[in-house]
Amino acid sequence: MAALTPPEKIWFNGQIRPWFEATTHVLTHALHYGSSVFEGIRAYDTPAGTAVFRLTEHIDRLFDSARIYRMEIPYSKEDIINACKEIVRTNNLKQAYLRPVAYFGYGGIGIVPGPETPVDVAIAAFEWGAYLGEGTQERGVDVGVSSWHRLAPNTMPTGAKAGGNYLSSALIAREARRHGYAEGIALDAQNMVSEGAGQNIFLVKKKKLYTPPLTASILPGLTRDAVIVLAKQLGYEVIEQSIAREALYVADEIFLCGTASEIVPVRSVDSMKVGSGARGPVTHAIQKKFFGLFTGETADTHGWLEPVENPTSAQVRAIYA
Ligand SMILES: Cc1ncc(COP(=O)(O)O)c(C=O)c1O
After folding, report:
1. Considering only CA atoms, which residue is closest to atom 16 of ligand 1?
2. How far is it, in rounded angstroms, from Cα 219 to Cα 202?
3. Mean local confidence (pLDDT), 131-141
């Protein structure tokens, strides 16, 4: 797993501050109760300059997650979008992983945060490599079905990207790593395939793509959505339906997708080879289409690339050259 290299600055409660000054008290509500909501977003160095992938939709999801927990973010969506771009520019990053987080802060220790508990907001932007390791997007990863299931819909909503949910992800991922797998695949409360600890999942069978529906205790991933759109553009049928565990064992191809991991082929599940045990042609075609968005080979027909107008970006360099 790629380590974090600290950048110089971070956006914290409306100000650009030195990275190591963005600290909080140990009695911060979120530290005790997991009461934070956050996003993981990537900015890419495209031929037209640094651009953030689906920034507005990520911030929409951040605000949706906050709403589910009745958390009022004390900034507008526009403020947060601008702050995301600003912190990428300030840190002089051509490509970055962005982590906006809103959380119940210091000022009360009751489970239900009251008016004495502020909502703090931070936005970090830093260089971060492939989440499942360098080379995994070509080589693929080994995964195992977890004994830990995803949260049932009447326990904690997986549609909210909340800090507390990631205790479930940590159990799934840790168990997988203990067994020598790169990642764990969780089933939902009905024992149907849900998702990875931090990625959505797709199966390919006879050139058709299958993915669990939004009702399978998944996070509605923006990469998942992009894959669905791009796969259809490539002429593949994409079917959102309940997937039984055994379908994993007889799939021609499987891949995981998410902002941090991007698109990663799965070469084995529970120590059984998937297809030939190497990246399959459909996965490869979808990867090419997806990464083509950032090299300019795939047209951005949906306005997914939101420029940061980074002075170090290719576009501005070209203007001033
Ligand atoms: C549990 C979980 N599922 C799926 C995803 C993929 O979502 P996205 O593509 O929006 O990053 C993530 C990553 O954020 C995640 O944490």
Report:
1. 198
2. 14
3. 93
Model confidence at 318, pLDDT cuts 50, 70, 90, reads low
Backbone angles phi, psi at 78, to 5 degrees: -60, -40
Q: How far is the CA of 107 from the centre of ligand 1 (A)?
A: 31
Binding pocket residue ranges, ligand 1, CB within 6 Å: 40, 169, 195, 198-200, 219, 221-224, 258-259
Task: With residue 239 as reference, give the H or E element that holds it.
Answer: strand 238-240
- Mind listing the pLDDT tens digit for each residue in 229-287? 999 999 999 999 999 999 999 999 999 999 999 999 999 999 999 999 999 999 999 99
Can you give the pLDDT at residue 314? 53
Q: Which residues have a catalytic role annotated?
A: 161
Delineate the domains of the chain, giving CATH numbers in brackets: 9-126 (3.30.470.10), 136-295 (3.20.10.10)
Nearest atom in ligand 1 to the alpha carbon of residue 58 is: 10
Q: Which atom of ligand 1 is nearest to the CA of 225?
A: 9
pLDDT at position 203 is: 98
**Distance, first Cα to last Cα, the chain:** 37
Q: Which two tokens stand for residue 16?
A: 């650009």
Q: Of all atoms in ligand 1, which is nearest to the CA of residue 165?
A: 1
**CA-CA distance, 145 to 202, in Å (whole number)?**
14
